[in-house]
Amino acid sequence: MDARERLITSTQALLWERGYVGTSPKAIQQRAGVGQGSMYHHFAGKSDLALAAIQRCAEQIRAFAEDRLSGSGGAYERIESFLLNERDVLRGCQLGRLTQDPEIVANPDLHRPVDETFDWLRRRLATVLAEGQASGEFAPQLDPEDVAATIAGVMQGGYVLAKAAGSDEPYFCAIRGILGMLALQTIQARRALS
Description:
Layout: H1 3-18, H2 25-32, H3 36-42, H4 46-69, H5 75-84, H6 94-98, H7 102-106, H8 108-134, H9 144-165, H10 169-193
Helix pairs in contact: 1-2, 1-4, 4-5, 4-8, 5-8, 5-10, 8-9, 9-10
């Protein structure tokens, strides 16, 4: 891995652990194993490097979500696969963490990829829900956009509850809850067809 790549991956990890303010250029350089000259050779400064790390994180989250949401099976199965896939719940969501960082929120360039990724996720979930609705898997009264926003909100809230409890159980409890509610939509759709 070259110095530029090490700088990006180190910054990603530090942003997740410490946030923007707690991530100093010196800490990035130490974790990446590079000198100050190397850092400033590849990036104009901390903000430029943070942007590259946030964009990388956004790409990884989108790829992870897309892999599960475009997989095989019906809409419910794909959403279930996405929500129940193994993850480090107690560390929380990398991008969700950044929404609480005042420096990220105040900087439009750094905030943009965070907002765009959450918007993409809601739209992608809504598309899968609409596909399920069109195939008769979900009840006609289901609102894909509202349910997609609810799923995203439950995920992020689940991370917060898990961190507060020091256990991943509150996260999975919230996920099982939203999946149970979604399963009711499939039962209602079946009843409507019979």
